[in-house]
Specification:
α2 runs parallel beside α3. Helix content is about 50%, strand content about 20%. The strands form 3 sheets. The protein has a 5-stranded parallel beta sheet, with helices on both faces. β4, α4 and β5 form a beta-alpha-beta unit. It has 15 helices and 15 strands. With about 400 residues, the protein is α/β, with parallel strands linked by helices.
């Protein structure tokens, strides 16, 4: 849980911020009504994700609360009732993340949104590509304030090597003019690689060439900024691109996830399973298991469909936990598929453990004792559909011959 320090003399504002922070399951507010309370709280040595600080407090009327939180190296967001350009420059010079005026509930929602972004940024990797050491240090310092994990490169070739080494980098911020490989060539090389299609790319340039921005974006960049840029504009672009990427991922995920059980659906199985099969170059084959809950219809008939849905959810959770290294899919109804690339002996042992685990477990509030039947295809085939069909036939053979058993061959 991430603790957020709130220093605010208004009881109403404290209540609003407390409620909004508590609505986020990852955030916990620590509330202080004045500078003195904040000082005592900070002396306790808590590890704070961020601080939300009122600029003018009764016992700290000149922004001393901001200096206090920054002295503990806590990313600090300032709330202020009044705003002008002098205040803006002063706060940015101090090193605050941002400043937000107390205008409406939307302002407070912006505060919480930014705090949650900080939480996500702790595991978000950004690559800065810039041949100018001064410019690179400046961009990195801005990103570090917002808790990003930073990698640095001085040209496009070095950037590509880092992207190959650290494949979980989510964003590249690159200058245009660089030796060896410039930013324009870099984005073309990145978009040529399938695995980097979702990588966010923001181009930068200090030239006044109006065509350059469109040239970058047409080549695959997500955004473009002209240097010099304002602190706020830079972060707005970074945050908006990250949010857009997350929204696309959510939409894509929802298309691939079964809404009831929260495991992958049949559509994803066909798409991803074929890729797994195509990538398999080992001597052992990809293993396909078809798993079916025995006598599921009687649960719906005797306990109702709500109990049946709950059973499916709990069974799927058990599958995900037990086959955590494998692809788990709801194939349809009460039938599930597990695809594994692990060593066959290890996987078959895991399957045997699972059927025993199901026998000894109790499901739903009705304490249901159930069993399952499993069909396995471990032989090599050229397509996934053939393996699924074979595993499915063996599953129904297991059900016809008494249920609660595993059949892995046709003999």
């Amino acid at each position: 849980m991430n603790k957020v320090l709130v220093v605010e003399d208004s009881l109403t504002v404290r209540k609003i911020l407390s409620k909004l922070l508590e609505d986020n399951p990852y955030l916990t507010p620590i509330l202080c009504k004045d500078f003195a309370e904040a000082t005592q709280e900070l002396k306790k040595g808590h590890d704070f994700l961020a601080a939300i600080v009122d600029l003018n407090l009764p016992d700290a009327p000149n922004g001393e609360s901001v200096d206090l939180s920054l002295s503990y190296s806590i990313p600090t967001l300032v709330l202020t009732g009044n705003f002008d350009e002098f205040t803006r420059a002063q706060l940015l010079d101090l090193g605050v993340l941002d400043y937000i005026t107390k205008e409406s509930r939307y302002s407070y929602n912006q505060v919480i949104k930014l705090i949650d972004r900080l939480r996500k940024n702790l595991t978000t990797k950004v690559l800065v590509v810039e041949d100018s050491v001064t410019s690179r240090n400046y961009i990195c310092s801005l990103l570090k304030k917002f808790q990003f994990q930073i990698y640095e490169a001085s040209d496009g070739l070095e950037a590509l090597n880092l992207l190959a080494e650290h494949q979980d980098i989510r964003m590249v911020i690159s200058d245009h003019r660089m030796p060896n490989m410039d930013g324009y060539e870099l984005i073309k090389a990145i978009r040529h690689e399938r695995r980097m299609q979702d990588l966010i790319f923001i181009g930068l340039s200090g030239t006044n060439d109006g065509v350059l921005s469109s040239k970058f974006i047409k080549s695959g960049a997500n955004d473009f900024l002209s240097k010099p840029f304002y602190h706020e504009e830079f972060f707005c672009r970074v945050m908006q691109n990250l949010e857009a990427q997350e929204m696309i991922q959510t939409i894509r995920q929802s298309a691939n996830i079964d809404p009831l059980t929260q495991v992958y659906n049949r559509r994803y199985l066909i798409e991803q399973g074929e890729e797994i099969l195509a990538e398999d170059t080992s001597t052992s084959a990809v293993t396909v298991c078809m798993i079916d809950i025995d006598n599921f219809k009687s649960v719906n008939d005797n306990q109702g469909h709500k109990a049946g849905d709950m059973l499916l959810q709990e069974f799927a959770t058990l599958l995900k936990e037990h086959f955590s290294e494998d692809l788990v899919v709801r194939y349809g109804g009460e039938e599930f598929t597990v695809i594994s690339t692990r060593a066959l002996k290890e996987h078959l042992g895991n399957v045997s453990q699972f059927i025993n685990l199901v026998r000894s477990s109790r499901f739903t509030q009705h304490e249901l004792n159930i069993t399952c039947s499993i069909g396995i295809c471990a032989e090599k085939h050229t397509d996934l559909e053939t393996q699924i069909d074979i595993a499915d036939k063996r599953l129904y053979q297991a059900k016809r011959t008494g249920k609660d058993r595993i059949i892995a061959s046709d003999s």
